[in-house]
Write a structure and sequence with these properties.
about 70 residues, mainly alpha, about 80% helix
Length: about 70
């Protein structure tokens, strides 16, 4: 649906002029997709877990070197 189609449909439904609807700034909004939000959250969580694991591995690697040289 194009912007003009939306404005005309809202104008017909409300009885207002298309210019009034255009001035009010009606816009089409995509429906909320819970799956997309859940996917982003799980991907972010996985990235944080991977970062923590790599930090632990690099920290444990430093500790081993320190023990060998001491």
């Amino acid at each position: 649906m194009r912007q003009g189609d939306l404005e005309r449909a809202v104008a017909r439904a409300t009885g207002e002029a298309v210019s009034t609807i255009r001035r009010m700034g009606f816009q089409r909004v995509e429906p909320f997709d819970r799956n997309r939000v859940a996917f982003r959250a799980s991907r972010r969580r996985n990235t944080v877990q991977q970062n923590r694991q790599s930090e632990r591995q690099s920290d444990s690697g430093r500790g081993d070197d320190a023990q060998i040289s001491a």
